[in-house]
Amino acid sequence: MAGSLHGLPGNLFVVAAPSGAGKSSLVKALLELDSHVQPSVSHTTRPPRGREKHGREYFFTSTAEFDSMVLGDAFVEWAHVHGHRYGTSKKAIEDRITHGADVILEIDWQGALQIKRIYPNAVLIFILPPSWEELRSRLERRGEDTAEVIETRLVNAANELAQAKEFDFVIINELFERALFDLKAIVHAQRLKFLSQRRLRADTFRALGIL
Ligand SMILES: Nc1ncnc2c1ncn2[C@@H]1O[C@H](COP(=O)(O)OP(=O)(O)OP(=O)(O)O)[C@@H](O)[C@H]1O
Ligand SMILES: Nc1nc2c(ncn2[C@@H]2O[C@H](COP(=O)(O)O)[C@@H](O)[C@H]2O)c(=O)[nH]1
After folding, report:
1. Which residues bind ATP (predicted)?
2. Cα 49 to ligand 2 centre (Å)
């Protein structure tokens, strides 16, 4: 199958974290190292910030367009986050997974739990900051949000952190390289699990005369 790692549908990884914990940085680093993982680009009603480009970080969408996508059943999941709406379109993930790519979603916890209900094999990964002080300082150092937006995000973080226990894996992003190592290990382990559960196991069983 074209673009497929093993001729079978790909894996779905979902990364969530409070704003500023470092999920975009970790996912970006993973994508640079692993060409088989593809990002899903979400739709949002939030305005672009900094150097964000339409179609790269997000599809920046008016509320009317977002409404019409909701009515047209175009989203696999969507949620209100920090005063805006964000959603993963069916188009962003389904074709790619069917063609064997691994797809990674960077979404909030509400979306992650919706995805798990629809795709029970999706792997949910939660990124934790090492402390509240560090979370605040990362948001401030990033320098892309107003003080008011940073306060909203920190208030929302308390509720988000309480959801970590619902996830399959939790990574503490203190040392960036260590956290990236953990993320790569989870992706790798899921591929091995998938392969050993399916074709490789069947091939080996056949070779050993077990089947
Ligand atoms: N391990 C780390 N140590 C120090 N700084 C980090 C670490 N990981 C990420 N950062 C920095 O913290 C800031 C926030 O990271 P990032 O934008 O990746 O967070 P995020 O979780 O994706 O936030 P949002 O949900 O708002 O997009 C960035 O400036 C990033 O460079
Ligand atoms: N449920 C969804 N959440 C999403 C999606 N895309 C992004 N997000 C989450 O929103 C917040 C804020 O993101 P920001 O880019 O404005 O900082 C963050 O937690 C994202 O993960 C989505 O499609 N669905």
Report:
1. 17-24
2. 13
Report if residue 201 sits inside a domain. Answer: yes
- The per-residue pLDDT for range 178-210, each reduced to its tens digit, is 999 999 999 999 988 877 666 666 777 778 887
Question: What is this structure's pTM?
Answer: 0.90
Q: Determine the longest span between alpha carbons in the chain, in angstroms.
A: 66
Report the domain count for the chain. Answer: 1
Find, among 169, 110, 113, 129, the residue nearest to 20 by Cα: 129
CATH code assigned at 107: 3.40.50.300
Show the tokens assigned to 20: 């500023």
Condensed to tens digits (0 to 9), the pLDDT of residues 138-185 reads 999 999 889 999 999 999 999 999 999 999 999 999 999 999 999 999
Nearest-atom number in ligand 1 for the CA of 153 is 26
**Which among 87, 65, 85 has a CA at the least distance from the CA of 77?**
87
Domain extent for 172: 12-39+101-207
Cβ neighbours of residue 195 closer than 8 Å, sequence gap 6 or more: 6, 201
Q: Closest residue (by CA) to atom 14 of ligand 2?
A: 19
Rounded-to-integer distance, Cα 9 and Cα 4, Å: 8
In a domain, 88, yes or no: no
Write the ipTM: 0.97
Q: Is the CB of 11 under 6 A from ligand 1?
A: no
- Binding site feature residues for ATP: 17-24
Q: What are phi and psi of 24, to 5 degrees?
A: -65, -40
